[in-house]
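So, can you check?
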Amino acid sequence: MALDEREFDKLGDAELRHLEDALGDIDPDECEIAVSGGVLSLTLKDGAKIVINTHRAAREIWMAAQAGERRAWHFGHDASDGRWRVGGVPGGDELRATVSRVMTERLGRAITL
């Protein structure tokens, strides 16, 4: 069942807050974190940028990484486990794991969310 706008806003905002809180422990010299208007921006020490935002019209969380090559993902809410997954379906790549993987690659050390 598709999320209504209110439920999407609640779940999407909670996910962005979780990511911001989880990433808040990273040394600011390694990753600068900025949040504004439903957009979480990460600037890594090597200049790579990661932008994660809620997209109300699509009821998705979008992530874009400019880290050498440009990559983008669209995560929908998987009601079966409450996670944000590519396509919003069980078994799809999960948002937190994707952020962890990209940050681990760029920072050269394990980042787990």
